[in-house]
Amino acid sequence: MSSNEEPGSSKDKVENDKSVGAEAPEGAAKQDDGTDDNPAEKDSMDMFSLSEYLARSLGLREKPESRLVEISLAGIAKFLASEECKNVVTMAGAGISTSAGIPDFRSPGTGLYDNLASYNLPHPQAIFDISFFRENPKPFFVLAKALYPGSFKPTPAHYFIKLLSDKGKLLRHFTQNIDTLERVAGLDGDKIVEAHGTFYSNHCQECGLEFSLEWMKEQIFADVIPTCSEEGCLGVVKPDIVFFGETLPKRFAECVGQDFNKCDLLVIMGTSLQVQPFASLVNRVPFSTPRLYINLEKGSSSCNPISALLFGGGFQFDSEDNYRDVFKEATCDAGCQELADLLGWGDELKTLVASEHKRIDAAQAKQPPANTSQKKSKTS
Ligand SMILES: [Zn+2]
């Protein structure tokens, strides 16, 4: 595994990312993008990207034949509906959860931000700094209570991904978010890669005992610091989300390695793609693979020679040579609905959202107070 980035340097990057809400702790671990186990593969991939880019820039290589009949959302829809498109990979950031009402703890003036101010954090990201957490876990659990899964409903964009899976098109969904809304939307755990970990499982920081979501919820809502129940162990129990100073989950590395080279269509939404290693993943798909980017702003995601040299490629939305990159300026929900409409899935998506939201409301209405004894077995 690569050494971890210092929280200070991650912080600068994260603060530049306007789209983050619960998309924390973005950039928690540095460059652990699935290639540490095989550095040779990464090097060859980077060299390939670079040489391919240079060759094309210099007019030495013809661009690959476009798989899109037109470079537009309609073109993406036609391709997605075709037999040729079997393996869709989706990547999402905080923007996909915005309409669920998940607050951005970094916005001054919000109750959440004001709540945290009383804890004298050196900077907002300290909340996700593992060394700060070890000293003072309280601010994190205050934030966790406000953001807790179960308090929010998945958005139409989440259900669009579920629909992609139901239609047999989804290879994998990579999320930077820790809100578990993909799981709440019914997407199979096997289809999800939670790049920054998840609230779904929890472990004692001392002895490694695993605790369930329900157990953790009970502790957090009782305003106590979750403490290990193992005899003689008083370790703090922490959700398995990735803090600054921790490495990304192994599953992230494994799935990046497996999935990106067989991706037929890449859909990126609700992330400004400013932070590694997530940002560079867009360059891991084959050169012929169309890429759709749904976001409120194009940001600096487009190809420029410097980033191309450093990271290999980037998007080519505005380039004459663009044969595969489509930018849809929209919220994730609006972009997904429009794509669903073009696919003829529009009504199905609306019905799915309405019925699932109704089901969640009904379940929450009759949910008894959380009960105890949700301890799980020890994990090694
Ligand atoms: Zn313990």
From TrEMBL:
- Record-listed Zn(2+) binding positions: C204, C207, C228, C233
UniProt-listed Enzyme Commission number(s) = 2.3.1.286
Active-site residues are H196 (proton acceptor)
PROSITE patterns from the xrefs? SIRTUIN
Which Pfam families does the record associate with it? SIR2 (PF02146)
Top-level lineage group: Eukaryota
Q: Name the residue ranges with Basic and acidic residues bias.
A: 8-20, 29-45
Q: Which portions of the sequence form the region Disordered?
A: 1-46, 360-380
> Matching PANTHER family, A to Z?
NAD-DEPENDENT PROTEIN DEACETYLASE SIRTUIN-2, NAD-DEPENDENT PROTEIN DEACYLASE SIRTUIN-5, MITOCHONDRIAL-RELATED
For this chain, the family text in UniProt reads: Belongs to the sirtuin family. Class I subfamily.
Q: Tell me what this protein is called.
A: NAD-dependent protein deacetylase
Organism of origin: Aplysia californica
